[in-house]
Write a structure and sequence with these properties.
22 helices; Beta-lactamase; 564 residues; six-stranded mixed β-sheet; single chain; five-stranded antiparallel β-sheet; alpha+beta
Length: 564
């Protein structure tokens, strides 16, 4: 009987112990799950939520040390000023679970250098290698280059050969050679430096082809932070210059919604003709030719003319007299079906007739809305109106961009950007962001100049865009120029003479979902208009093919896509 009682008692104890073990295990499991959730919230940058969980878990018997460390980390992430406190012992912590490399990278990129230094100290205490790199980087950006260099010097060769290690090496070398400011392109690639004498020094001689002199003048003429990112993209510039090939001229690429100049390149001969130290993409003034027909169309809409109705039914016979003088078309197109058809084949007489109906005063007002006769000075001196009154032939020439107006390649690209940017004019920009010495802390520059000045009614845009799209289709002046699957809106223009040589302006844009870029391709000094158009077509096609390839690797701001 006693044995049975003892067995029952033992069994009861085992059951109680089992239940207690289950309760203890469940308690431990719940705390672990909460800890993992808090650590995930850290990674997701939900600092307040993570801090609340860590604080509650500090009373946990099982994971109080891990929770304590989490609370310390969230405090550092929340406050610039943080006093050192004792850290939990190393053998109680798995530091990998706190995502320190990601947090350090985030702090450095957001210019939170004090916090980055404090967090890197914790990483160093727990012997995390990433912290050994971020600690000197944060010290350097915090204005302690001597101390940063000492820590960097003690790094292993393996760490020095990482991405951040190489950036630190590059930065220290530049500072040791007298650099006061480090200039990079919009993606962070090193362009050059400025010393105490405020002279610009290119990192590579090749970059002189990508950064025109007027850009350097703008950098030097402004207050320079320790790091500056240009709007210029070296890879896009290289792509544009390669597309230009052996031709004389310029290519300009602009982000339509911000006005940031992504590329502005020219061949050497064009620069030599304009003069030493010139910047043809910003300074060369030539007649716009038929790209100005887009402005004539907007003037018609603004003054209550319906371009579709005005043009539909016109017959293009290849020539027409205005004030007794003949104006020729590229070819006799016969009956015109409407605005889209006229833009596609670039009929001169159709738009000359439209301009004559609009009149001098209204045409001049429209041109000024598009930047002509602007008071802006270098580097963005925009186009000029040369003749402001005259007979109907002079007005016809004005309406089709011949003789009476001139503009730069940058201005031409900005004109195309208006139709990409829902009818808003943007002012051009050369600077993208301020940065630190290491070039990993970009802070987007807040543009002081007014952006996105609405100059067009959005109801006018579909008809104009349809015409620009038709330019790149069968029968258009740039038919089949776009690579397959790449949507492009364009207008072509050919100007000049047999005496002075012919030039071509091709402008247009790629919409946001496929690249978000406006462009101008200008080729000059061709002996015939046919040769000018043929060269421009081939150059523009090569440019678009390369843009399509690069757009797949970039986001809408032309930054490299982040790896998931």
């Amino acid at each position: 009987m006693k044995i049975k009682k003892i067995l029952l008692l033992v069994l009861l104890c085992l059951v109680i112990a089992g239940l207690a073990s289950i309760m203890i295990f469940n308690s431990y499991k719940k705390d672990r799950q909460k800890l993992e959730l808090a650590q995930s919230l850290l990674y997701e940058n939900k600092i307040n939520e993570a801090n609340a969980l860590f604080s509650r878990l500090e009373d946990s018997f099982w994971i109080k040390n891990q929770a304590r460390l989490g609370s310390i980390i969230t405090s550092i992430l929340s406050y610039d000023e943080y006093k050192d406190v004792p850290l939990p012992e190393k053998d109680t912590i798995n530091i990998d679970h706190y995502h320190l490399p990601s947090l350090l990278r985030r702090l450095l990129s957001s210019s939170a250098f004090n916090r980055c230094t404090q967090l890197a100290k914790i990483g160093k205490f727990y012997e995390m290698e990433a912290a050994d790199l971020y600690y000197p980087a944060a010290l350097l950006e915090n204005g302690k280059p001597g101390e940063a260099f000492r820590w960097y010097s003690d790094l292993s060769d393996r760490l020095k050969n990482t991405f951040l290690g190489n950036r630190l090496k590059e930065t220290f070398e530049l500072l040791h050679t007298g650099a006061h400011s480090i200039i990079r392109d919009r993606t962070g690639k090193l362009v050059g430096t400025i010393g105490a004498d405020r002279q610009f020094k290119f990192y590579r001689a090749l970059y002189r082809s990508f950064i025109q002199p007027v850009i350097i003048k703008e950098i030097i003429n402004h207050e320079i932070p320790k790091g500056l990112r240009l709007s210029i993209d070296l890879e896009l510039s290289r792509l544009a210059l390669k597309s230009l090939g052996e031709n004389q001229g310029s290519i300009v690429l602009i982000q339509p919604d911000t006005g940031e100049v992504l590329a502005a390149v020219s061949d050497e001969k064009t620069g030599e003709k304009i003069g030493d130290g010139s910047s043809p993409a910003f300074e060369q003034m030539l007649e716009p030719a038929s790209i100005l027909k887009l402005i004539t169309v907007t003037a018609a809409f603004r003054n209550k003319f319906d371009p579709e109705r005005e043009i539909a039914g016109m017959t293009c016979r290849g020539a027409k007299r205005y004030s007794g003088k003949i104006l020729y078309c590229p070819a006799a197109q016969g009956e015109l079906y409407g605005l889209e058809h006229a833009l596609a084949v670039s009929c001169n007489t159709a738009f000359a007739d439209l301009g004559v109906k609009i009149g001098w005063e209204k045409m001049l007002e429209e041109l000024r809305l598009f930047g002509f006769d602007s008071q802006m000075k270098n580097p963005f001196a925009l186009g000029k109106i040369i003749i402001k009154k005259g007979d109907n032939r002079a007005l016809a020439d004005l309406a089709i961009g011949l003789e009476n107006t001139v503009l730069t390649p940058v201005h031409a690209a900005l004109t195309g950007a208006v139709f990409a940017n829902d009818g808003s004019w943007v002012y051009p920009e050369l600077f993208y962001a301020t940065d630190g010495f290491v070039g990993l802390s970009p802070k987007k520059i807040k543009i002081k100049r007014l952006k996105g000045v609405k100059i067009l009614d959005e109801h006018w845009l579909p008809a104009i865009r349809n015409g620009m799209r038709a330019v790149t289709r069968y029968g258009g002046t740039a038919g089949f120029i776009a690579p397959t699957g790449f949507q492009v809106y364009m207008k072509t223009g050919t100007g000049g003479s047999y005496r002075d040589g012919f030039h071509v302006n091709y402008i247009g844009y790629v919409p946001k979902d496929q690249g978000n870029i406006a462009f101008c391709v200008r080729l000059t000094d061709k002996r015939t208009s046919f040769r000018a158009r043929r060269a421009a077509y081939q150059t523009n096609r090569e440019l678009l093919i390369r843009l399509k390839q690069l757009a797949a690797q970039r986001d809408m701001n032309w930054q490299p896509k982040k790896k998931k």
